[in-house]
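Deviations from the work plan: none for this task. Representative record:
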Amino acid sequence: MLKHAVSQVQHKEMKNYLPDIHKNTTEVPIKLRTFVELTMDVTSASPRRYFFEVMSYFATAEHEKERLQYFASPEGRDDLYKYNQKERRTVLEVLEDFPSVQMPIDWLVQLVPPLKTRAFSISSSPLAHPNQVHLTVSVVSWTTPYKRKRTGLCSVWLAGLDPQQGIYIPAWFQKGSLPRPPPSVPLILIGPGTGCAPFRGFVEERAIQSSSGPAAPIIFFFGCRNEDDFLYRELWLSHSLNDGVFSEAKGGGFYVAFSRKQPQKVYVQHKMLEQSQRIWNLLLSKASIYVAGSATKMPSDVWSTFEEIVSKEGEASRDSAANWLKALQRAGRYHVEAWS
Ligand SMILES: Cc1cc2nc3c(=O)[nH]c(=O)nc-3n(C[C@H](O)[C@H](O)[C@H](O)COP(=O)(O)OP(=O)(O)OC[C@H]3O[C@@H](n4cnc5c(N)ncnc54)[C@H](O)[C@@H]3O)c2cc1C
Ligand SMILES: NC(=O)c1ccc[n+]([C@@H]2O[C@H](COP(=O)([O-])OP(=O)(O)OC[C@H]3O[C@@H](n4cnc5c(N)ncnc54)[C@H](OP(=O)(O)O)[C@@H]3O)[C@@H](O)[C@H]2O)c1
């Protein structure tokens, strides 16, 4: 049992490095294993440079000490970046690579990256699913420059849960950057990949609203690699039929860009340009724009595409189109929620 989160530092020469940890002790007993699982990211995040410096003090094998000192030095900065951050080396992996290092728990508690919370957009409408919150989570995986397979900590953990076994997941709500649109506002939605998450809720909500009164149309630009990651395919297609919120009869539309189905990339921006006039007409009808998904390049590419559309359809210069869009943003009609 760990009565205090940290105890007295025993290594005198190291004392100067530690902040005043004794103020933050807890009196509640907690198992060491639970403490580590709930607070310390040992299997996902990479340690910082300082971690290597401290490791070098505890290394008993001379060659390990030398290597760690090199990593901690200004000359070793680039090699440390290649070994550590670029490879997304985890604390556990680093400790395994330097087996002579026996770092005391006091130090690990201080230096291991804290376990971070993850945010997810709510992808259900409370009208359609009272007392439930649905999430749309992409299982993150990639290959490092040295061809090591890496996976996302939280998304893989969520994907591995067994829905049959009730499990308690600590969660809370935080106001997002996409306000809930009133039914009278036409919507232009851009959500490639998991960016479709918040729009699933919007579409469910508008479908319910439109069954009991007038509701403005929605056009939605979705993007995925191919048919295999075509999230909620049936849902979107069903809303495109007959009286659905995406139906042409209602002034709506659903457009999907498959990026890897053909030799050249097709993204949501390409589909938007094909619908340039419809987008412009909806903007003139006081539509709001919502963009969600990967933060890497997509939001700025989509912004440029809107600039191009406004410039072409509004017969304005590119600068005037950009200013027009900025005014739209200030008026609360251009919203972005993006993540990496
Ligand atoms: C407001 C908001 C809303 C969000 N909504 C959603 C949502 O609805 N659905 C959803 O799936 N996610 C959403 N996210 C992202 C989510 O919070 C997590 O970041 C995501 O699930 C990954 O978490 P993880 O623990 O699985 O991965 P982690 O263990 O945190 O690993 C992810 C990290 O790995 C690295 N990485 C990932 N891919 C690569 C690559 N190809 N090359 C190099 N490095 C890479 C990056 O550093 C990345 O930050 C949202 C984020 C925010 C801020
Ligand atoms: N293993 C898998 O099969 C798989 C499948 C989906 C997601 N994932 C994981 O989940 C994470 C998040 O996935 P996600 O579905 O939210 O997003 P994503 O897969 O990163 O992207 C969704 C779609 O957006 C496209 N895209 C890329 N750059 C764009 C740009 N600048 N503008 C417009 N569209 C662009 C992608 O095309 P391109 O990727 O073809 O460029 C893809 O078709 C990914 O990082 C990945 O690790 C894995």
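The chain has two domains: 12-111, 187-339.
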